[in-house]
Amino acid sequence: MTLRINKFLIIFFVYFSLHASYLNAKESTGDQSPIEDTQQLEDGAHDSLDEVNGLIIDRTMTRIGSMFYSEFAQQLNESEENLEENLTITEKTTAKFGTIMTIWHSQKVVFRTSLSPKMKESKEQAAKAVKTVQDYLTKWRIQRMYSDTFDLAHDEI
Prior knowledge:
The protein is α+β, with helices and mostly antiparallel strands. It has helices at residues 2-29, 63-79, 119-145; strands at residues 56-59, 87-94, 98-105, 108-115.
């Protein structure tokens, strides 16, 4: 945890140091152009900027969780070439059950399993997770395609 905080503080410090040196250099040259890009996007061009799609976010903490994430991401990317949905893999370590892996899609649990420290088990569970996630995404896409969005957009339902 402290390593993440230290990395954040270093990045934060470097960013503001660079930003301050940029502003000082700009003042010394007399360039008064605005920092922001004021150019307007063409109509409809901003639609692709709404959300980044196809991400598999790794929120694991242990070696076993990282192995599960790697296996899952590799197998899913091989089977789903054009993944447009974002997934998050979280890990909760417990003394009694080992580690509990959870796969989320739009704040909904899609798959949950517990893993012991066996490497082979993480590969088998990742294969099961890929099958379960593919089935869920297929059902979710069909439901979304046939849902009535006259009054509400898909993300508001």
